[in-house]
Amino acid sequence: MSARLLFAPLAVALIVAPLAPVVVGQKGKKFSQSEVTVKVGEKLVFNNDDDVTHNVFSAAPGFAFNVVAMKPGANHEVAFTKTGSFDVRCAFHPAMKVKVTVTK
Ligand SMILES: [Cu+2]
Prior knowledge:
Blueprint: H1 3-16, E1 22-25, E2 35-39, E3 44-47, E4 54-58, E5 65-70, E6 75-78, E7 84-89, E8 97-103
Parallel strand pairs: 1-3, 2-8
Antiparallel strand pairs: 3-6, 4-5, 7-8
The chain binds copper (II) ion.
Residues 29, 54, 90, 92-93, 96 line the site of copper (II) ion.
InterPro entries: BlueCu_1 (IPR000923), Cupredoxin (IPR008972), ET_Amicyanin (IPR052721)
Domain Blue (type 1) copper: 29-102
GO molecular function: copper ion binding; electron transfer activity
């Protein structure tokens, strides 16, 4: 393999990383992270990379949303307008929880 082929994926990652949204997967009925941090206005993407339908919701005042059903393969983007910290859960799988912190 040439050096060019080896370094190409790294170069792409470096270019894309600062603009990429924070993605939380749902494989195996678990959120892929237990905690995530996003900035105000930055996109937080829930990606159903599992083979069952999930829900994502937050009941926290000022951060409430509810994606009633996310089929396998579905993505849902959320962004928040103020700083704070709250839990996002799945109504179908009570063990699923990810703590989201929104910073300036
Ligand atoms: Cu679920």
